[in-house]
Amino acid sequence: MHSEHKPLLSVRNLKTYFFQDEGTVKAVDGATFDVYPGKTLGVVGESGCGKSVTAQSILRIVDQPGRIVEGEIVLCCAKGTDVELTKLHPNSKEIRAIRGTEIGLVFQEPMTSFSPVHTVGNQIIEAIRLHCGISEREARAKAIETLRQVGIPKPERRIDEYAFELSGGLRQRAMIAVALSCDPRLLIADEPTTALDVTTQAQILDLLRRMQEQRGMAIMLITHNLGVIAEMADDVVVMYLGRVVEQGPVDAIFHSPKHPYTKALLRSIPSIESTPRVELPTISGSIPHPYNRPSGCPFFPRCPECIPGTCDTAEPTPIAVSEEQSVSCFLYPS
Amino acid sequence: MIAYIVRRLILALLTTWAITVLSFIIIQLPPGDYVTSYIASMSASGVGVTEAEAQALRIQYGLDQPIYIQYLKWMGLIAQGNFGMAIEWGRPVLDVIGDRLTLTVVISVAAIVFTWALALPIGIYSAVKRYSIGDYIATFIGFIGLAIPGFMLALIVMYVGFKYFNANVGGLFSAEMADAPWSWAKFVDMLKHLPIVAIVLGIGGTAQMIRIMRSNLLDELRKPYVMTARARGLPETRVILKYPVRVALNPFISTLGYLFPYVVSGSIIVSMVLSLPTVGPLLLKALIAQDLFLAGTIVLMLGVMTVIGTFISDLLLMWVDPRIRLGKQ
Questions:
Q1: Does the beta carbon of A287 lie under 8 angstroms from any beta carbon of chain B?
Q2: Is residue B322 within 8 angstroms of chain A, CB to CB?
Q3: What was the ipTM of the complex prediction?
């Protein structure tokens, strides 16, 4: 499907580790995926599987003591040149020019994502002036226009309000406005709807889709909510313990999941057709402690289809099961 | 917003009244009165005081009346802008205090400015470069500064100044300027003496401030708004200074109010060692002599200044923090 396109962002074997006194946390441990222009990539997985750290690695804003130890992240810039993001210094001019203009970021918690002592407008105008080099007045006009585009009523008044004066939904819209203010070609949305109530969630997802249509940007949507993925994504990456265990087009992932983890995730969604008063299947066990990862396939201790002697000793590598779908599992011979 | 200011103002007035009652009670608490300590000092120098003379003294100073009458009389005097007589000195209290209060404010402000000027940048550095060599060095020196008693440091500074620079670093003025009337030359003389005094008085608080700034900022650095600021492409220095540092400074503004009395009461011994013309040593002497009006007035003035300081810091906080200004969390 995408073979004729060049990916906008391509992540290869990314490893981001956190070096702490107690041990090393391998938050991202060999993630590989591509984001295509104008498409939405859904990244799904349980809490702590490295989704957010992957996003932070792409922007090079991983907090200390985290560090990218291996892999490459190639961004195809607007000018047509390829930039290897892992080669840049995290505080270099090059990466700072990419943040905001090429890649925008929306966080889960819109309340704490805004400074409590600066107005919303202050933070949008700041970004616009930094990247576009236009006057305060022009930047303000552009900020108001962006706020209007994301559906904030009376933007010329809202611009001078503080984040805590806005409702949860408006706050997240304002956050999206900040991320879109410099027209990025890739929007990374890290759990953008998790902190919102259900009706607001739907509105925000709608907004993201509309912005994508208008601007033709790519979205990397990080979530643990498979419903959001089904609604939004073109392609899906399933992560477990810092690795991509399965990826493919959204239809393939939902209709013919291959990896036992993906299957288990899909089984644990409540459905309107399921029999009432029957316990919802859950994934047995829990995520291993980050200092104590299992050897072999990371999922084998919880896997119902585990092959003893194979899964607990060797690490599976991605295997193409169709033209577009690949899975890292020994159940599928290469 | 107006309601907030009015509420603070009413609270400030109530607090001031409570301070007058409390300071009066506290000064009355030790057994005996001024006459007792007068008799003690007279008999120590070999002069006896008869019971009749003592009684006459008590009547003269109004010490024979019940406490609440004494309090009301004192309040009456204050209402007229007269703070009574400093019994031991035989002069009006305001005369005795003279410009000591102003000088105390000058010295305290200098000490606080020194403390902040040193502590805030070091605290910011320590937080941003946590667990770096620089952080450890700052922490180590800070703790040494905290551990050295102020009077000890004062003595060392005086000794070093005298021995190696042949300079008398004590006092706030040169000998020939001490009793001169205020003039430009005297002001310049004071400015020359001020830095050492400020350093000696401020060094203890600096270590504490470094720790507070460091931990405040570490809390803020973890907040998502720092990461979103970075994700907008701002340079790191601007990210740190504009957002988390700004928020981490708020607690400092709220402590402005009681920093002043803290410096005054914490510096009595240092002030005596350095023979500074502040109210600290005067207060100590008045308390020893049980000089009711002098001690009461000084405690009252310090209390009122605390209240004013707190009121100002409340207004400042309202100005810098929209969460307070707009009355929301």
A1: no
A2: yes
A3: 0.86
